[in-house]
Design a protein that fits this description.
Layout: H1 6-19, E1 24-28, E2 37-42, E3 47-55, E4 62-71, H2 72-85, E5 90-95
């Protein structure tokens, strides 16, 4: 199985969001090849959700899991904590009032 680099996946994800007219931008650029990726979904109402790709030991598959959902300031603090011990992490902020992030679509899982 061919493994995509983090940079390639991020660029493809941003393009997918762009095609769906969902604004998104990189707030932290991580390691180009293997950096972990956090997705912050900002619903523009003072709340946000944070997602991370996780490996399921039972199924052997990777899936996006919600780490937390709270007020945006709390999510930002969580992201800052993650960045403090992982300088290779990517952080993508998606802004959508409807809560769309596309992470459950084929090809993005």
């Amino acid at each position: 199985m061919i493994k995509l680099t983090a940079e390639f996946w991020v660029q493809a994800y941003l393009q997918r969001l762009n095609l769906a007219n969902i604004p998104a931008f990189i707030t932290q650029k991580g390691d180009l090849t293997a950096g972990a990726i956090l997705i912050k979904l900002n619903t523009l109402d003072g709340k946000a959700q944070l997602f991370e790709r996780s490996f399921n030991l039972e199924t052997g598959k990777r899936a996006w899991v919600g780490l937390s959902a709270s007020f945006e300031a709390e999510i930002d603090a969580s992201v800052q904590r993650q960045k403090s011990f992982d300088s290779d992490i990517w952080v993508i902020e998606v802004e959508d009032k409807q809560g769309r992030h596309l992470l459950n679509e084929p090809g993005l899982e």
